[in-house]
Each structure stands twice: as structure tokens, then as C-alpha cells.
Amino acid sequence: MIRVELPFHLRNLAHVEREVTVEVEGPVTVRSVLDALEVRYPVLAGTIRDHGTQKRRPFLRFYACEEDLSNEPPDTLLSEDVVSGKEPFSIIAAIAGG
Q1: Three-state secondary structure along the chain?
Q2: pLDDT digits over 72-94, tens only?
């Protein structure tokens, strides 16, 4: 099971706690985690990625093991710590300011 941390507005939309778990078949990539998340919580479809292009929404960032994966290709493999559930895959709302 992959642990996924969600920002406040997505938690409210999906009516879940800060962290949810999803099961991913095959290689665990950014894309496969987001696909599994959208299958388990259909209300989130289109909120994290654009429906048509599948690109990340501008004010969301992806992190795993303290590494920013926001601009990495969607098929980037996630670390073993995320795969094993030791570390979460985090979706964070961007914060403006200095």
C-alpha cells in the first residue's frame, strides 16, 4: 500500500483524513499513484491533473522522501521507501510568498 498525503482542500473534497492509502499494480510511479488515487477517489479526478493533458495542476507540488518530483516525468519510479510504505507520497498545495 502506498501512503498519500493530501492538502486540505483535496481532503475536504474527498471527505478523507490527511493521509490515505492506495494499492498500485506494477511499477510505482508518480503516474500510477495518481491513477490509483483517482480510481479510489473519483471526485479527485481532474483536481490534481488536467483531464485532457494529464499535466499537474499549477498550484500543486509532488514530494517523496524530501525530494520535489513536481517537474519530473510522470513515469519516474518512486523510491523503495515510498513503495514499502515507510515514507508517504505527498501532494502539497503551493504556497506563495518569500
Answers
A1: CEEEECCHHHHHHHCCCCEEEECCCCCCEHHHHHHHHHHHCHHHCCCCECCCCCCECCCEEEEECCEECCCCCCCCECCHHHHCCCCCEEEEECCCCC
A2: 999 999 999 999 999 999 999 97
59: CATH? 3.10.20.30
Domains held by the chain: number: 1
Single pTM value for the model: 0.93
Residues with Cβ within 8 Å of 89's Cβ and at least 6 positions away in sequence, in order, are 2, 3, 4, 5, 30, 33, 62, 63, 64, 78, 82
Q: Is the dihedral of CA 23, 24, 30, 35 positive or negative?
A: negative
